[in-house]
From TrEMBL, chain A:
A Gene Ontology BP annotation from the UniProt entry: glycerol catabolic process
Organism: Caldilineaceae bacterium SB0664_bin_27
InterPro entries: DhaK_L_YcgS (IPR012737), DhaL_dom (IPR004007), DhaL_dom_sf (IPR036117), Dihydroxyacetone_Kinase (IPR050861)
Any single GO CC term annotated in Swiss-Prot or TrEMBL for this entry: cytosol
PROSITE patterns, A to Z: DHAL (PS51480)
Protein's UniProt name: Dihydroxyacetone kinase subunit L
Keywords (A to Z) from UniProt: Kinase, Transferase
GO molecular function: glycerone kinase activity
Top-rank taxon: Bacteria
Domain DhaL: 8-209
């Protein structure tokens, strides 16, 4: 791939993500009130505030791995609850994926998401259809990998990820929770969209917006 | 108690004032550290827990037991930030062992902390405590009284110079040799439930958890021996404990049961254990892991062998256990 994604663009992506989460705090709270303990919106908003502060800090390393690790630590410290360690793990593992130092290509971006997903599954022990953030992230990563294997452009790969993530998020409405607090509700969890799957969807929505509109940096 | 969150801070400050020669309390992130110096290379033993189970785990910090303990919010796991701060403070170069009760939040946060510690080159492991026989599936069993026992065994092993591998091994053995059951008598002071509906005088709730998780309400009409049989028999059947075994008996109140009632109850337990030819070699009775002010108790038995007995008897100097 010709296009390289720099740490600066990754920063722009996560600023867009933080803003999107903050806009949607009420929505996340509403979803979590229905099937959880109503703290996902508040926890994510608090964490995103910390993330914005961190991302606006001057003098950060331009190294992709160091950058992702610092994002992970900020989320672990700032979000709390179960989402803090889970998003923290996602970025901590993403930070161990291959890079070109201060940038990544499309294949490495896909690998970054794959490393994050694998870490998340290992840590949270959730599988597809458990009604968790995995239901958004797993189909999105698989769609990226398929589009990449078909030599599609960055725009197509990221659009495929966004679409698969969206379908995965909506699919959580139809299924019964088997992990997390919503699982205590059993069949009563059906009919409600999972809040974690929703906050995870915005990762792919904002990635598609930022990485395909900025063009070559 | 003026605003949410401050009760734990105030309680920790009070605890520091009550035990100035044993522990040091750190704030933001909150953790309790032992004051007794540890030799270089000693394995550090850390346990975290939601608050509301006191004295577990913070009352077990000190020589021969925990190097540090991290109190979370009420009934909520401490964060990786707290756990990692404790690691940095008490790592003596011999590695770190976490004693973790089997609840999803605690396991999640501990595993993440261990990943962070390993990335820094600190060898860290954990032992899961899952001794609650009221839950049929072993993987889902909650941690109860064996958490207290495991902290003592791990701490004693670390103090006597065991390697990290050996501390992990003997602590796993201690957990594997332990079984517990919780029983509720009333629910009076559980915060999340509001004023609870108390049980009828002739009922107990079998298999309750230490966060207000409900058990099975059983009507009992034949007095203490019947109650004790309902509680202790599942423990004995599960390991199973056999005639001639030496055991450690832990009877812990849940916070709302007076010592008078614990001792009353213990008579029937001793009678039952004697009838099954189990030798009560060591015992603890009092409040060792609680559920705020709930009425009820947990009963734990650990089958002893020479090594476990020796580690149990090793010197300990903490706010709660000292010999």
């Amino acid at each position: 791939m010709a296009q390289e994604i720099t740490t600066k663009q990754l920063r722009k992506w996560l600023l867009a993500y933080a803003a999107r989460i903050i806009e949607n705090e009420g929505h996340l709270t509403e979803l979590d009130t229905a099937i959880g303990d109503a703290d996902h919106g508040v926890n994510m908003r608090r964490g995103m505030g910390k993330l914005q502060e961190r991302l606006h800090d001057e003098g950060q390393s331009e190294d992709v791995s160091a950058f992702l690790r610092s994002v992970a630590m900020t989320l672990i410290n700032g979000v709390g609850g179960a989402a803090g360690p889970l998003y923290g793990t996602f970025f901590l593992r993403a930070a161990t994926s291959p890079t070109n130092g201060s940038s990544i290509d499309l294949e490495q971006l896909t690998q970054m998401f794959r490393y994050g997903l694998d870490g998340l599954q290992q840590r949270g022990k959730a599988q597809a259809d458990d009604k968790t953030m995995i239901d958004t992230i797993q189909p999105a990563v698989e769609a990226m990998e398929a589009a990449l294997a078909a030599h599609q452009s960055a725009a197509v790969v990221l659009a495929a990820a966004r679409q698969a993530a969206h379908l995965g998020m909506k699919h959580t409405i139809e299924i019964e929770a088997r992990k997390g607090r919503a699982s205590y509700l059993g069949p009563h969890s059906i009919g409600h969209q999972d809040p974690g799957a929703t906050s995870a969807y915005f990762l792919f929505e904002t990635a598609a917006e930022v990485f395909t509109t900025t063009g070559a940096d | 108690m003026n605003k949410p969150g401050s009760a734990i801070t105030q309680s920790l400050r009070g605890m520091a004032l009550c035990h100035p020669d044993t522990i040091k309390v750190h704030f933001d992130p909150d953790y309790v550290e032992r004051l007794a110096p540890a030799r270089s290379g000693k394995v550090a033993v850390i346990s975290g827990s939601g608050s509301g189970h006191e004295p577990l785990p913070i009352g077990y910090v000190g020589l021969g037991m925990l190097d540090a303990a991290c109190p979370g919010p009420i009934f909520t796991s401490p964060s990786p930030v707290q756990l990692l701060a404790a690691v940095h403070s008490v790592d003596h170069g011999g590695g770190v062992l976490f004693v973790v009760k089997n609840y999803s939040g605690g396991v999640l946060n501990t595993e993440l902390t261990i990943e962070l510690a390993l990335q820094e080159g600190i060898d860290a492991r954990y032992v899961l405590v899952n001794d609650d026989v009221s839950i049929p599936r072993v993987a889902n069993r909650r941690g109860l009284g064996a958490a207290t026992l495991a902290c003592k065994i791990a701490g004693a092993a670390a103090e006597s110079g065991y390697s990290l591998d050996a501390v992990v091994h003997v602590t796993r053995r201690a957990v594997a040799a332990s079984r517990s059951m919780g029983v509720g008598t009333n629910v009076n002071t559980l915060p999340r439930n509001g004023p609870g509906e108390n049980l009828a005088d002739d009922s107990i709730e079998l298999g309750v958890g230490i966060h207000g998780e409900p058990g099975e309400v059983r009507s009992v009409t034949k007095g203490m021996p019947e109650i004790v049989d309902l509680i202790v028999q599942p423990i004995l059947d599960d390991l199973p404990f056999a005639s001639g075994d030496s055991v450690l008996l832990l009877i812990s109140g849940m916070g709302g049961t007076p010592p008078l009632e614990l001792y009353l109850f213990s008579e029937a337990i001793h009678e039952l254990l004697a009838a099954r030819r189990l030798r009560v070699e060591r015992q603890l009775i009092g409040n060792y892991l609680t559920c705020l002010g709930r009425g009820g108790y947990t009963i734990s038995l650990m089958r002893l062998d020479d090594e476990l007995l020796q580690l149990w008897d090793s010197p300990v100097h903490t706010p709660v256990l000292h010999w």
